Model the fold of this input.
Amino acid sequence: MSDQQREDLAMSVRFLYQEKLLSATGHLSLRLDDGQRFLINPLNVLARDVRAEQLLTVDLEGKVVDGNDVVPAEIVIHTEIYKARPDVQSICHFHAPIATTFPIAGVKLEPVLFLAAIFRDGINVHPDPDLVVTREQGQALARSLAGGRAVIMRGHGCVVVGEELSACVSGCYYLEENARFQYQAMQIGTHVPLSKEELDRSYKLGKKATLRFWSYVKNTAGRT
Done:
């Protein structure tokens, strides 16, 4: 692994804390180049304070192979999704206050913002609100995620994945941002989701938007 990967992941954890997406709970991981290990923020360090040297290196069985802390209780979210999705390089589990509300209210969360076109394959709902602490629960969550970028755990929280760290972090931000705009629209009247054609057009802009967003992350969270 590179020092840059560690710095980027720690910076991203702090950024998501600043955005009120990670708090006393939640975890962000980054798969390493060998595909068999990943970095993750440790259980006993607040997201606000995470630094590169505190990150844990974990294998796909959830065992710490490098680091001086313990893994989050729901480490199987990461191990089982990485096993099921070779395309995924970064995973975040967090408790987004607005996005999490939609399944509680029995309302479907849909892409209404062009930057949410990354969720054009749908935002599925995982029916089980329990903590995901067994391999079987992790596998069930991976099935609910299927081939998408996000899944909402009913009465619990959210999981967002990305083909790289920047895509995962921006996805977390835009999932909650999209939820906020849909919620606001519903207070005024009805919401109008983006059409398939609109989603496909906007999706093509996603890479540029992610690069721009990554610059925002670096300038907001800093590297020290």
The first helix runs from residue 3 to 18. The domain at 3-221 is CATH 3.40.225.10 (L-fuculose-1-phosphate Aldolase). The longest strand covers residues 157-162. The chain has one domain: 3-221.
